[in-house]
Write a structure and sequence with these properties.
single chain, mainly alpha, elongated
């Protein structure tokens, strides 16, 4: 045949040149088929949604609204106990069912309102049982029970509004106890467990507000309990400062681990934890510098049961710090040596107070010099480096407000360290030894970050061809 036809021009071939095969080839054809398939599936799903019965949805909502109005009516008109209990139980069950139906119809906001009404029904039932039936339910017990139920509902239904209800009740409980309005007694030991559950649920729901509010609960409870113990003389100021230092560093380490896990809004937690840790460490350093002042009178002695409780809190805090370090190690933000080193260094503060007398005797025997005030000068050197490093790190991250707030801490620290005699060469060397020691330990702990930074900024050279 004289007119030969090049059949390859009509065959879809991705390897053919552009001038032989048009771009309506096999790849584009497959993409068109996939798009058409997904469009058909989407149309079918939307048709199914349109064909879903809406009658059950509206009947459930009307029944839920009727029970909710009935509950308000029974309390407003002071109906009988049986009527209130019936209305409360009805609100609880219709609220749970309404949440299920509204979630099935993808109405998340209405589902949260239904769950909130379930908590309201529970409060009504709890109040009726306590007041009308004569059950001995105190205010701390009621707040504790409501917080526990709300937290359980939040875990079961992954609900943020139930989590906030639990946090609000626990915060009211801790605030009333801090003010001295209520005395929780044995219920006081339940707050840490509830707080831990709220923090874990906040992390699970990625709720920055929940994390902040849960942390506020812990601080209100700790400060309130410490204030009551300080006023009664059960807790000394020295042990309070040491405990505040460890708890502050715990807050900062956990916040940094959460930041490594991708949780946002934790910079304020790092700052708050660092400030609290620095304030506690400054108090311990001031005691080591001037142990004979009237401020520390009686600080060396505590009741055995108080010391045991304080030691248990410190051990739990150090354990959490260690696990937070492991999380940072997993994300290559610190080394394993840094994890153990940070935990051991923070453990030295409470351990030094626990074995203070033995430590003084051993130091005097080894160096022929008293432990105090040499230890105080050394700790102020460590504090000086911590302030400088934190400010430098904040400036490096363009967090200038945090850097300014951190620099403000240096003013009271400098005032407390004003008694250090800088004209003595040994004192200056001791302060410098503390500064350099903190620098070396920080570099050892941050070794993975330093290595990663070097790899990131390492220049790449061509190994072949012309340069």
């Amino acid at each position: 045949m004289s007119n030969n036809i090049n059949i390859s021009a009509f065959i879809a071939n991705d390897n053919s040149p552009d001038h032989l095969a048009p771009r309506g080839d096999a790849a584009g054809f497959n993409a068109a088929l996939k798009e058409r398939h997904f469009a058909r599936i989407q149309n079918q799903s939307s048709a199914l949604d349109d064909n879903q019965p809406r009658g059950i949805f509206w009947i459930s909502l009307c029944l839920w609204a009727a029970f909710l109005c009935g509950l308000a009516w029974t309390f407003y008109t002071s109906q009988s106990v049986n009527t209130r209990i019936f209305a409360s139980v009805g609100v609880i069950w219709t609220g749970l069912w309404g949440r299920y139906v509204t979630l099935d119809h993808q109405n998340n906001r209405l589902a949260e309102i239904c769950l909130l009404s379930t908590l309201i029904g529970f409060v009504a039932l709890l109040t009726t049982g306590a007041v009308q039936l004569g059950y001995p339910l105190t205010l701390p017990a009621g707040l504790c029970l409501f917080a526990a139920i709300s937290l359980a509902l939040s875990w079961l239904h992954t609900s943020k509004i139930a989590l906030m209800a639990a946090i609000c009740s626990a915060l009211i409980w801790a605030g009333l106890q801090m003010d001295g309005y209520i005395t929780s007694g044995a219920y006081n030991l339940i707050i840490p467990a509830l707080w831990a559950g709220m923090v874990l649920q906040s992390v699970r729901l990625r709720s920055s507000l929940g994390i902040f509010a849960s942390t506020l609960i812990s601080y209100v409870w700790l400060i309130g309990s410490a204030a009551i113990a300080l006023s009664s003389g059960d807790l000394s100021l020295l042990y309070f400062c040491a405990g505040a230092s460890v708890i502050g560093w715990l807050h900062m380490k956990v916040a940094k681990a959460a930041e490594d896990e991708g949780i946002t809004g934790v910079s304020i937690h790092v700052l708050i934890g660092w400030i609290m840790g620095m304030c506690g460490l400054t108090g311990v350093a001031y005691y080591a510098l001037n142990p004979q002042t009237d401020l520390w009178a009686g600080s060396q002695f505590l009741l055995p049961e108080v010391r045991f409780g304080w030691a248990m809190v410190m051990i739990c805090a150090l354990g959490i710090i260690f696990f937070a370090g492991l999380i940072r190690r997993k994300n290559k933000r610190t080394s394993m040596a840094g994890v153990f080193m940070n935990t051991i260094l923070l453990a030295i503060i409470p351990a030094g107070l626990w074995f203070e007398v033995n430590l003084q005797n051993a130091f005097l025997q080894w160096t022929d010099t008293p432990l105090y005030p040499s230890l105080g000068v050394f700790l102020f050197g460590v504090i000086g480096f911590q302030i400088a490093f934190f400010v430098f790190n904040a400036i490096r991250r363009n967090q200038y407000l945090i850097a300014i707030l951190a620099m403000c801490i240096s003013l009271p620290v400098a005032k407390l360290a004003a008694t250090i005699d800088l004209s003595d060469l040994d004192t200056v060397l001791n302060w410098g030894f503390g500064f350099v020691t903190a620098l070396i330990l920080t570099l050892l702990a941050a070794e993975p970050q330093i290595n990663a930074s070097r790899k990131t900024h390492r220049p790449r050279y061509r190994t072949g061809g012309k340069i």
